[in-house]
Specification:
Elements: H1 4-17, H2 30-38
Length: 45
């Protein structure tokens, strides 16, 4: 679990760079995670 972010970031980087884009990954920020997990599930995509 602790190294999962390494694979997610690598996959996101490869996927977006193939299209000439750069991904920003806010999901590594603990404050962002706390806010996202506290949201009503109906508000999420």
């Amino acid at each position: 679990i602790k190294a999962l972010y390494l694979y997610d970031c690598l996959r996101a980087n490869k996927s977006t760079s193939a299209w000439g884009l750069e991904a920003r990954v806010p999901f590594l920020d603990k404050e962002f995670i706390n806010v996202a997990m506290g949201m009503d599930p109906e508000w999420k995509m």
